[in-house]
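Table S2 (continued). Query chain:
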Amino acid sequence: MTLEDSASKELKWWAIPGKFLRQELLPVLTNLRLAIALLLLIAIFSSTGTVIEQGQSPAFYQSNYPEHPALFGFLTWKVIQVVGLDHVYRTWWFLALLILFGTSLTACSFTRQLPALKAAQRWKYYEEPRQFQKLALSAELDNGSLNSLSQLLQKRRYKIFPDQEKENILYARKGIVGRIGPIIVHIGIVAILIGGIWGAMTGFMAQEMIASGDTFQVTNIVDAGPLAAQVSKDWSVRVNRFWIDYTPSGGIDQFYSDMSVLNKQGEEVDHKKIFVNEPLRYRGITFYQTDWGIAGVRVQFNNSPIFQLPMALLNTKGQGRIWGTWVPTKPDLSEGVSLLAKDLQGMVLIYDPKGKLVDTVRAGMSTEVNGVKLKILDVIGSTGLQIKADPGIPIVYSGFGLLMLGVVMSYFSHSQIWALQKGDLLYVGGKTNRAQVAFEQEVLEILDRLSSEPKIEEKETAIEV
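Corresponding output:
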């Protein structure tokens, strides 16, 4: 074997991967059916992540998705946790779908959209009348001139490309932006996918239940990406006040949290009143108002100091939310009463150890229990906060902006017109990639302006897309 044969075989071996990519892998990646299938799968699993609560504790799924009876006959807490439906957007298979779909769009852009744009930017002049027979719309006029045609086309925002060597030839086009639009759409979608992946890998979600007046730092993280950064400890958040506005019928109208962000020295650096759909944002972390509760009750016995007793959420077996606590009425704790509250309107129910209702007291009022004057000063609420950090959101928003821009650009038709002057005859023809009827009307109006009685030969052929 000669040296040249050896080098030739080595070159062919190195060419195998490139040949495989071009002939085997690229046709699969750019297949429209594959892209549609991936998009449907992403939509289905995204909706699954919306319906099934994300980032909850195992006990939550065991309680809400039992094995008997299983939801839809198969959906149990075991299936949810094994498949990863409790954190869909961070599972390896969902991220793989996003990457594959993005790769498909990128390959399609390079193999189809970019070549289509380059082809639209190239043209050749038509120098023979027979060449106009290939166009979707063509006409032959026995009067008219290229100069008049050029002026009419310019008024309709066509860009003119006259032949520098021959003065009897003209080419004009408009709407090249319509060829750029699909590329911008693909870039926007890929940016959305990249933002989603980056957010899933680096973001986190936390939940906090904070009593009115308390200060806290973000610690109760329930779901986080593998690349999520630790929350800085040089700042904290104080819930200055939490309150609820009620409707005249007693229902909840809206609940609010007045919050302050404090630096390491305890100085306020940001302040906002939040409510549902109006969060607080600080250093890329968003605090949403999502829930509420009762943290405690402030009471006084006779002329004693004021005590703040915590209240716990009781198990009512789905009969509504009620918070309760036990209050001793004797120093040796041998006797006491139970206090129950269901909202922050200040109504407190007092029960004796036998479960008998002793009295109903509003905040600011007092009653006598076991020979002791018990005064209910206030019912203290707590705000339920959902705290999220998603560094991919700016990328996603930028992607949506590009997507909308690309869609608008795609509506522009790419129209082309050729003209040839042969003695007294003027040959005019054109084609477009969309809005064929509107293009025909436009060309006919131009021809009518060129000649009052043009001899037009119109051919109805398929538009090349």
